[in-house]
Structure to design on (229 residues):
């Protein structure tokens, strides 16, 4: 199994508070991704990183920011959490892009009340 | 626009039946990659297979087989002699060049329930 962990695994927070989710990998992969999974929507890309300090937006990036200061860590921040951001968040890693499959972390279940 | 459609939201079969999960994709790229992932009830996402746009060979892995047809933009997944452990949500995904980097777009998934 790919060495990828997410923390926390579960979190309940209040509307308007900032929240940071962490993705940590031990594979030294260059590419890292954040997705959210919602019923009826499948997985949707929030942000991704193609190297340290190199990030770009996905299809549902509004209200989210990311940072990657080290190869192994990719942080997702909800600047001011809203109920619409209640979701399961998955981090993924890949050694390359295009033809390379992505390996997913165990997910973080976030509830915004 | 890049898009993946899994028209079957839910499928229910009885153990030992064969079942096919449909996946239709849209892309303007000539080079692209297709994937299938499995998400069992425990929630993790498991990679099953990758196929590139230049390789239309069908693939068989045990009870699993995949049929890639560029003419119909389809990449269907068949489970032969289904088992209860096959119960999961299955996602089809398309990797396409979105500018300087590739992005992965997923279908909405098909929930397969295999009943004993």
């Amino acid at each position: 199994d790919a060495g990828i962990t997410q923390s926390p695994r579960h979190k309940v927070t209040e509307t308007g508070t900032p929240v940071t989710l962490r993705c940590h990998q031990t594979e030294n992969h260059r590419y890292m991704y954040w997705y959210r999974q919602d019923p009826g929507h499948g997985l949707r890309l929030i942000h991704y990183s193609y190297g340290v300090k190199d990030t770009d937006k996905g299809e549902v990036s509004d209200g989210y920011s990311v940072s990657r200061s080290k190869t192994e860590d990719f942080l997702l921040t909800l600047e001011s959490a809203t109920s619409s951001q209640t979701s399961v968040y998955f981090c993924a890693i890949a050694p390359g892009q295009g033809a390379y499959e992505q390996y997913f972390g165990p997910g973080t279940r976030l509830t915004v009340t | 626009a890049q898009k993946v459609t899994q028209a079957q939201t839910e499928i229910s079969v009885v153990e030992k039946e064969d079942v096919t999960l449909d996946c239709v994709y849209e892309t303007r790229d000539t080079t692209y990659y297709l994937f299938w992932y499995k998400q069992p009830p425990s929630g993790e996402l498991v990679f099953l297979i990758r196929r590139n746009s230049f390789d239309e060979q069908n693939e068989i892995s045990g009870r699993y087989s995949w049929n890639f047809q560029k003419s119909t933009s389809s990449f269907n997944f068949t489970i032969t002699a289904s088992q209860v452990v096959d119960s999961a949500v299955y996602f089809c995904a398309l990797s396409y060049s979105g500018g300087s980097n590739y992005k992965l777009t997923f279908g909405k998934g098909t929930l397969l329930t295999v009943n004993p």
Summary: Chain B touches chain A at residues 31, 33, 35, 37, 43-45, 47, 50, 52, 91, 95, 97, 101-109 (CB under 8 Å).
